[in-house]
Amino acid sequence: MTSEQVADRTAVEDAARDGSGKEASEGYQRGLGNRQIQMIAIGGAIGTGLFLGAGKAISKAGPSLILGYAIAGLVIFFIMRALGELLMYRPVSGSFSEYAREFLGPFFGYVTGWTYWLFWVVTGMTEVTAAATYVQFWDKSIPQWVSALGFTVVLYLANLISVKLFGELEFWFSMVKVTAIMGMILIGIGVITLGFSEAGETASFSQLWSHDGFFPKGIGGTLMTLHIVMFAFMAVELVGVTAGEAKDPEKTLPKAINTVPWRIGLFYVGSLIILMSVISWTNFKAGESPFVAAFQRIGLPAGAGIVNFVVLTAALSSCNSGMYSTGRMLRDLALNGQGPKFFAQLSKKGLPLRGTTVSAALMLVGVWINYQWPGDAFNYVVSFATISGLWAWVMILASHLRYRRLADKGLLPRSTFRAPGAPWTSIFGLAFIGAVFVLMGIDEDARVSLYFAPGWAAIMVISYFVLKRRNPEAFARRDLPVHADTTGPAA
């Protein structure tokens, strides 16, 4: 970093001091412990995409959706291990936005920070939309927009508390989801093996291939659900945003990342295997939670109500995580001179409430979407969120490739948590995401995401050059710190 950039950032950090005069270069309270980080990582991944979006995906691909989740889950693991290596190289609150800025240049850091902020704002709309949909399970007379408004206000108020209490709430939210999924799997296994309930006579693992085979819609049908599958996994990278507030990031973050394979295997692949074994995949449809539908069809209406409450909790938990991350991303942009300095200040409790408040206000747009198009709202916001989330993953993998190349040459410190199989795993991940983009262009329903991308890209490019002209120091390319590694290049 040049001396001018250091001075510029210092000025921003001085402006970010709270009322007590506390230095706020990072300024966050390290109040998130290991169990909270673990559950935040799990909770961010278990949300609308699994509980609501899976219904549409099952109807389009049938049992082969299980394979789609397994392959995509492997790619997600590659992405998370790449992020983990970067986090252990330098754990920062800006996470992959900061890494893109360092390894790919200020333009990519700028675009990544604002795009990821947009992703969570739109995802917040998605989760509130889903929550409003779940409320109608009990009372269809309540308009979706009324429920969405109420949830947005409540979750914003929840983010006015300390980060430690936020982590505790997320821990219990996630615990409810994990316990519920485990319960559903165990009940499903009981139905299959013991034959109890109304579905016991037909429940069997053979349901996975007895209705037009494992690929009833062909391989093409499976491929056309990959964007839905990838959306279900979005938010797993949220654990990287917690780096600035984790008590012991060198220990807690690798542990959370290493749980990705069994989380995907159990919560996604395992639950879908059981669901489509208890009842035929032909009974699932878009817009209906497959978990709620399964309990209804096996004759346990009380169980369906319980599951509906759990998936409501899942949606609200994911939205709560979104509100948490938006304030942090806006503050990172402000500290780097790539966003309004207004967002740099922390509250006395170490919370970026200004960014959170503005983001929550924008999430209210989701309420308007529910009012205008209650039937199509979910599909609209999912499409907008998907393209933004995929960009974050691309930046993680691209930054990791550059970092690994420099570290292996001895120019940068080697991370203590190296990604296995790199750089080939990161290259494979980029190719897979590229294929998803192509498939989204082919799929008429998903194509709206690509219509959104050029408009957002134009906004980013124009605003970048306008702001760069006003503050060239903040957008100057940083000099990478050269590391004298006497051990030589990695083998």
TrEMBL record:
Pfam families according to UniProt: AA_permease (PF00324)
Entry keyword set: Amino-acid transport, Cell membrane, Membrane, Transmembrane, Transmembrane helix, Transport
Amino acid permease/ SLC12A domain mapped to chain residues: 37-471
Taxonomy, superkingdom: Bacteria
Topology with respect to the bilayer: Multi-pass membrane protein
Compositionally biased region (Basic and acidic residues): 1-25
Compartments, as annotated in UniProt: Cell membrane
One GO CC term, this protein: plasma membrane
Keyword Cell membrane: yes
Family: Belongs to the amino acid-polyamine-organocation (APC) superfamily. Amino acid transporter (AAT) (TC 2.A.3.1) family.
The name this protein goes by in its record: Alanine glycine permease
